[in-house]
Design a protein that fits this description.
It is built from two helices and four strands, in the order E-E-E-H-E-H. By secondary structure, the chain is an alpha+beta fold. It has one domain. It has a four-stranded mixed sheet. A hairpin with a 2-residue loop joins strand 2 and strand 3.
């Protein structure tokens, strides 16, 4: 599974991933809480940060 996330220091972390054919969205108040969730709940998932440089490519792929 791949988890895509966008981090804003003041706003927190918004993430999205597909699970059982359904798109899931999550919000975390800090990067530490997001990393903790990934570690404990999502185990072996790949994590990709959404940045200005990869945003268009991810939109074209339909993952964000």
């Amino acid at each position: 599974m791949i988890i895509y996330y966008e981090y804003e220091r003041v706003l927190g972390v918004n993430s999205t991933h597909d699970e059982s054919g359904e798109r899931k969205y999550n919000y975390f108040s800090s990067l530490a809480k997001f990393k903790q969730w990934v570690s404990y709940e999502m185990g072996n998932s790949e994590v990709i940060e959404i940045t200005d440089s990869n945003y268009r490519e991810l939109v074209e792929k339909g993952v964000v």
